[in-house]
Amino acid sequence: MATVLKPRGSGASAGLQLAPASARSETPRPHGDDAELLRRARRFEASALAELHDRFHPAVYRFVAWRVRDPETAEDLTGEVFARLLEALRQRRGPDAHLGGWLFRVAGFVVTDHIRRRYRRPQVSLESVVLQSDANLVETAERSIRQDRLTKALQTLTEEQAEVIALRYGAGLPIREVAEAMGKSEGAVKQLQARAVAALARRMQGEGA
To answer: Cα dist. 192→24, 27, 29, 180 in Å?
Structure first.
C-alpha cells in the first residue's frame, strides 16, 4: 500500500515568482468528504489512498520546494510527509478532520528538521549558465541572480514568516487554509503575510542597491 503514497516524480517547479494564489489550479479545494476519505484511508483502501495522494501531493510538494530550493530534496521530503501520514494511519493516529491542515503542519516540521540538519545555501550553477546558448546567456544569468537574491532574502525571515510565504505563494493556498494549517486566525495570517512581504521587499531592495 505504501507505494500509493510515494511521490510520482511530478517535479513541480520550485520557481521563485510570487504568483497570486488564485492562479494555482492544482490547489486543494475544500472538501466536505474529508472525514469519509479518512475513514476509507484508515481501512487502507487503495482508491482512498490514491485519491488522498492526488488531491494533496502537488500543493504539499510546492510548499516544500519553496522552502528547500531543491527539486530532488523536495520530492524526498514530500514523500516523508506522506509516509508519516501512512504511519499515523497504521497506528490509528493522525487527523480526524482537516486533512490538508494536518499535512501542511507535518510538512512544516519535516522541512524545519531538514534545514536544521543539512541546510546549505543554494548557489548559482556556473556550469548550467555556460551551457546555455550565447543568445540566452545574459537572460539566464540575470534570472539566476534574481532567484539567488530572493532565496537569500527568504532566509532572513522568521520561521513563521517563511512558512506563510511558502503556503500562500509556494503551495498557493487561500488564507482560510493557511490559517488552518498554521493554527491561526485568518486576520493573524493576513497580518503575518503583510509583514513577511514587506520584509522581503526591504531585503530585495537592499540586495539590489
So the answer is: 21, 21, 23, 14
How far is it, in rounded angstroms, from Cα 107 to Cα 101?
A: 10
Averaged pLDDT, 83-99: 86
The pTM (predicted TM-score) of the whole model is 0.64
Question: Model confidence over 111-163: pLDDT tens digits?
Answer: 988 888 865 544 444 444 444 445 454 555 555 556 667 777 777 888 899 88
Residue 39 has pLDDT above 50, yes or no: yes
* Residues 185, 179 contacting (CB under 8 angstroms): yes
Task: Please tell me the distance from the alpha carbon of residue 81 to that of residue 5, in angstroms, as a whole number.
Answer: 10
Q: For residue 28, give the DSSP letter.
A: P
Mean pLDDT of 69-80: 93
Are the beta carbons of 178 and 33 closer than 8 angstroms? Answer: no
How many Å apart are CA 187 and CA 185, to the nearest integer?
5
Cell of 142: 540575470
Q: What is the DSSP letter of 168?
A: I
Q: Would you say 171 and 59 are in contact if contact means Cβ atoms under 8 Å apart?
A: yes
* Class of residue 9 by CB neighbours under 10 A (exposed 0-12, middle 13-18, buried 19+): exposed
